[in-house]
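Predict fold of 23S rRNA (Uracil-5-)-methyltransferase RumA; 461 aa.
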Amino acid sequence: MKNQKVQIKKGQEFPLTIKRLGINGEGVGYFKRQVVFVPGALPNEEVVVTVTDVKEKFSEAKIKKIRKPSKERIKPPCPIYEKCGGCQLQHLDYKAQLREKQDIVRQAFERHAKLQGDHLPLRETIGMEDPWNYRNKSQLQVGKKKEEVIAGLYGINSHQLIDISECMVQHPATNKVTQTVKGILQALNIPIYEERKRKGIVRTIVTRVGFSTGDVQLVLITATKDLPRKQLVIEEIKRRLPEVKSVLQNINGRKTSLIFGEETVHLHGEEVIQEALGDLNFELSARAFFQLNPIQTVKLYDEVKKAAELTGKEKIVDAYCGVGTIGLWLAPHAKELRGMDVIPESIEDARRNAEKQGFTHAHYEVGKAEEILPKWLKQGWRPDVFVVDPPRTGCDRKLLEAMIKVKPKRIVYVSCNPSTLAKDVDQLLKAGFKLEYLQPVDMFPHTAHVECVVLMSRVDK
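Predicted 3D structure, encoded as tokens:
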């Protein structure tokens, strides 16, 4: 009977000391040796909690009372922070956020790669000088509240739309355009889409700003191709928002959580807006992927460049290359660059971007890295440096196997998920690579996300 677990029950209340932050930014404590996740609680706080849900391996709880607050707890500056859920850490001092993000990476490597202490070459998180107004794109659902047009996000664990009029992590231009467009839709009485009834027209307002140019792109996502009073809408946008250089309509009539549909119609101005990162120029179409925080992206890519240690003689593979941004950052210092991605449009953009920068030594193919690599090896082409920036699920197992087979001098792994990163690094360590260092970068201040640049090198025997 000694080892029998004490059964935690929903609605139960008990005191808890918070030990650390979890991967989603929630406080983590232990009650009778069982894990309890508490959103909004901070490390070293003593709280009284009420259990909201009981799972097999953990429980979830909410704060009833904070008995001993953290010295690093602050008042969140955003008035709707607790309702919105878009940010998770505004109640924690920014310097402490950077330290805790480093700790989230540390925990992942202790758990999944069994690396800790001196065996984990983990650097301090690179933060932002001014961690506000950094997002260059906003996608807000449109709805109605008492006959007034609103645009925002659905609240935490609810289907209630929270109006976001002045988001503090968005670039001010995106806030201004969204607010003005809400007013235009209201004034012209344009039908707003109702998800429950599946009626109405306008579903989402998407705005994107070029940080370097100030150009704004506006996309109205509609449930039907027909947009009532379309010409009047365009005229009002031109009159009230001269900074909007590109207006598009995207049609998505499906019942789906995906924002964009397949068809995009050009309504006014340019089809793309211009953006620059360092010396590189990019054209951004409505659906093109681009990093959401251009200021930190430059820092992230510079860390990739440092890790790659290029001399001008290296052949580089840019796996999961997307529109080619990371590879193009490295291209001036490499002998040859080859990239691949499964999305044909991304490869078209990558080729166009390389041509635009005047890089003739960049080659891109559509397909999976784990299928294209063996083909190149057979042709006698062997890379010196591997750059991977996979989705949250981590590298495909076959790609890891292909990398292990190729044995490049260096692997530079860019990750947005510490757990899958640690698992993949563990595989590479077992295959004989050496972990040189881990460099966390804060791409999304006030959220629980942490990006990481990892350098691994081949151990020559």
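The two ends are 53 Å apart (CA to CA).
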